[in-house]
Amino acid sequence: xxxxxxxxxxxxxxxxxxxxxxxxxxxxxxxxxxxxxxxxxxxxxxxxxxxxxxxxxxxxxxxxxxxxxxxxxxxxxxxxxxxxxxxxxxxxxxxxxxxxxxxxxxxxxxxxxxxxxxxxxxxxxxxxxxxxxxxxxxxxxxxxxxxxxxxxxxxxxxxxxxxxxxxxxxxxxxxxxxxxxxxxxxxxxxxxxxxxxxxxxxxxxxxxxxxxxxxxxxxxxxxxxxxxxxxxxxxxxxxxxxxxxxxxxxxxxx
Amino acid sequence: xxxxxxxxxxxxxxxxxxxxxxxxxxxxxxxxxxxxxxxxxxxxxxxxxxxxxxxxxxxxxxxxxxxxxxxxxxxxxxxxxxxxxxxxxxxxxxxxxxxxxxxxxxxxxxxxxxxxxxxxxxxxxxxxxxx
Lengths: 254, 131
Known about the structure:
The complex is a heterodimer of chains A (about 250) and B (about 130). With about 250 residues, chain A is of the alpha/beta class. Chain A is built from 6 helices and 11 strands. In chain A, helix 1 packs across helix 5 and helix 2 crosses helix 4. Chain B has a single domain, classed as CATH 2.40.50.100. In chain B, the strands form 2 sheets. A 6-stranded antiparallel β-sheet of chain B has the order 1-2-3-9-8-5. A 3-stranded antiparallel β-sheet of chain B has the order 4-6-7, with no helix packed on it. Chains A and B meet through strand 9 of A and helix 1, strand 4, strand 6 and strand 7 of B.
C-alpha cells in the first residue's frame, strides 16, 4: 500500500439520489467552485437517472458515433479529462479539495487518484474482492473511445479488467476528482463487464458506498459529516445545469 | 528571449514584454516548472485572436493525465497572435517552454497588470517552495 497523506480536515459527505447527467455534472462544478472559499473537502456519491454517456472535456462529440450501443443514450460533456463513460449500473463519486496552490503547476492531484483508488481496494477487500492498482500506463489504448477500455496508472483493475477510473478538473484553486466504480454491465456498453461478472459477487450500492467512505476517511484522515449543498451551491448548480451542462452548445462544443 | 528577462505569475505563466511601434506586446507561455508538474500534456485549448484576456483570469485549458487545468493570464491585454502549432505538438513545451513553446502574444492594455508579476529570482524562490 502507498503512503497515507493525512489531510487532517473535516469533510462533508453528500449522498445524492439518481439524477440527470446535466445535474450531476453541475453539482460537481458547483461544489468545486466554492471549495477553496469555504475551505471544505466534499465527498459526494451519486447515481444516474438513466444510462448516460459522459464525454471527456476534450473529446469530440462526433466521436460517439463509433460506439453504437450508446447511440440512444443522453450525453453530457464533463469538465474533466479522459475518455467517455457509460454511466449505468455503477457507483459514482466526486471528491472536491481546496488546492494548496493555484494555477498551472503544483498540487496534490496525482496522489488523490492513488489515495481514493487505494481506499476502494480497502473497501472491496471487505467484501472478499481483491482488486489491484494498475502500476503502469499501457500505451496504445489512449485513443479508445471509452475510458474503461483505456489503462492509465492508478486505475483499479480486477482480473485484468478496469473497474474504476477517475479524472480531474482543476479550477478556482480547487481540485474536483470524480470517478466510477462499475458494478454490473450495461446493455449500452456491453464491452465493460463490471465487478459482478468478474468476481461473481453482487455489491449493494449503499454497502460499497459506506465501506468506501470509511476507507477514504481512514486513509486521508478526514472526519465526514453528512450534509447537503449550501444555498449558494444549490443556486450555482441550477444555473450551471440550465446554462451549461444541459445545453447543446456545451455538450457539442467540439 | 531568456527566461531571466521574463516576468512570472504566481500561477506559473510567464510574460516577456517588448515595445513594438509604441505598444507593449507580451509574449505569454507557461514555465518549465509548470510543464514538469503537469506531465504528459495531451490537449490544449487556445484563446481566439481578438479576444480580451485579463490578469488572473482563465485564457486557455490543458489536459494531462486525465486532469483538465486552467491557464491564467499574467496580463491584461488583447490577443493578437496564438501559437497554432502548439496544440498538435505539445512536446514543444517540454523541449523549449521559453521559446518555441510560447502560447500567445497580446497587446498589453493595462500596464498596472504587470506590477503584480514577479521577476525571475523571486519566481524561482516560489518554485522552490512549491516543489
